[in-house]
Amino acid sequence: MAQPPQPKPARPTSAAALSPEPKIRVWDLFLRFSHWLLALSVTIALLSGFFGGLPKLWLHLIVGITALVVVVLRLTWGFTGPGSARFADFWPSPRAIMAHLAGRDGRHLGHNPLGALMVFALLGSVLALAISGALSLGGLYKIGPFAADGFALGSVAREAHEIFGFLILALIAAHLGGVLFESLRGKENLARAMVTGQKVGRPGDHAPMERQARMAMSLALGLILLVGGTLALVKLAKRPVDGLPVVTSSLVADECGACHMAYPASLLPKQAWQHLMAGLDDHFGEDASLAPETTVAISQWLAANAAESADTLPAHVFSNPDPMALGQITATPGWKALHHDIVAETFKRAPIFSQGNCQACHKDAEGGRFSPLALSIPSPKK
Ligand code: HEC
Ligand code: HEC
After folding, report:
1. 225 phi-psi bin (left φ>0, alpha ψ -120 to 50, beta other)
2. Cis (ω within 30 of 0) for the bond into 351?
3. I want to staple 197 with a disulfide (CB 3.0 to 4.6 A). Which of 27, 280, 294, 364 is the partner?
4. Which conformational region is residue 101 in: left (phi greater than 0), alpha (psi within -120 to 50 degrees), or beta?
5. In whole angstroms, what is the distance from residue 102 CA to residue 92 CA?
6. Nearest atom, ligand 1, residue 330 CA
7. For every one of its 382 residues, what pLDDT tens digit does the chain have, with 9 covering 90 and above?
8. Is 329 in the pocket of ligand 1 (CB under 6 A)?
């Protein structure tokens, strides 16, 4: 009969004493807690990522950071936890995997070699998702530790983030399939064992290695990694960021903010501003003409601070305007693609009234940042 994996010999309770099959404590409390917290946070991250859109990004970030913290702590537990939590106990060598596939290795109380492979694949995917997600947030939106790292890198990271999202989805499906398969094959409920922590011992089982959890070591290591990691990220976040939009000049704010918000210069390329400024007498059906020297001063300021000088997402996305509607941000293919899912009625109702009223939904529109964390569609006003 297998030895109980935990250091303290299990004192048989009266129920266990009566039961013909000995219950063995396989999964410790932290392992079970981290497993289910990871399952929950990754599920919410996938749902909010694939279906929530940018207005749900805050939720996506909260659960994403939670998943990252769980993985970091699970990694420390892999070196400091009790036997069945130790990576050394279930390191999936090709030999062990082959033996398992061939059905030559008997029942594992801890992770079997294929399950172990899945553990590493899932932990690795969450790390890859966290890194690519943070790089996207920094590069595209100038938020967080990688804000200084440029739009181009952010775009690549965004693609990678999505690929990793599909990858982890596939891994989860395979994991559920594997758990179901092994449960049926071994006639035991493995999901329940991950809740109770217990399995019924059988003759010939592979018991996990006998190791006591090193609690003090574990706490110290976890704390060092989390605090050190946070400090390093804060330091990265403090780097100067290039290509942020400039504050709108007071002249432009006064003259161009009379009928609508003064659009930040970084929202359109130079050529579009020049076209718009040359036709102020017929400005979207209004006469917005100004004194010639004012027009020149505004034209020059807009050209100098146009999309070409910024590295923000709108500066890149709106930089190829529709040649038939130069000077109209809402006519650019990029703007249309971003707002594709919003029904036309939404733009007409109070307090939005028009597509060009960016700040109704983007609280930071006047500054030109357009952070997804400053984004919400206001509910209808009666
Ligand atoms: C007399 C009022 C008035 C003034 C002054 C004015 N505009 Fe406009 N502007 C409009 C109207 C009306 C529209 C069309 C709005 C719409 O279709 O929703 C518009 C639209 C725009 C748009 C396109 C917005 C979009 O929906 O893509 C830009 C860009 C713009 N104006 C820039 C400027 C600039 C730059 C100045 C200063 C030189 C300026 N406007 C001054 C009335 C004005
Ligand atoms: C009715 C509310 C609404 C208005 C008005 C609106 N937007 Fe948006 N915008 C959204 C929503 C919602 C999204 C996110 C779509 C998604 O989930 O991908 C978005 C996304 C964006 C994005 C990309 C995401 C980001 O945070 O950078 C940019 C840039 C943007 N809008 C610019 C503009 C500009 C410029 C205007 C004005 C000309 C404007 N929007 C007007 C609702 C609005």
Report:
1. alpha
2. yes
3. 27
4. alpha
5. 15
6. 27
7. 344 455 444 444 444 445 567 899 999 999 999 999 999 999 999 999 999 999 999 999 999 999 999 999 999 999 999 999 999 999 999 999 999 989 888 899 999 999 999 999 999 999 999 999 999 999 999 999 999 999 999 999 999 999 999 999 999 999 999 999 999 988 999 999 999 999 999 988 998 999 999 999 999 999 999 999 999 999 999 999 999 999 999 999 999 999 999 999 999 999 999 999 999 999 999 999 999 999 999 999 999 999 999 999 999 999 988 888 999 999 999 999 999 999 999 999 999 999 999 999 999 999 999 999 999 999 986 5
8. yes
Closest Cα to atom 33 of ligand 2: 358
Q: Determine if ligand 2 sits within 6 Å of the CB of residue 267.
A: yes
Q: Which ligand is nearest to the Cα of residue 327, counting in written order?
A: 1
Number of the ligand 2 atom closest to the C-alpha atom of 329: 38
Nearest-CA residue for ligand 2 atom 26 is 372
Ligand 2 center from residue 152 Cα (angstroms): 20
Shortest-distance atom of ligand 1 to CA 252 = 37
Selection from 269, 266, 355, 359 nearest residue 314 by Cα: 266
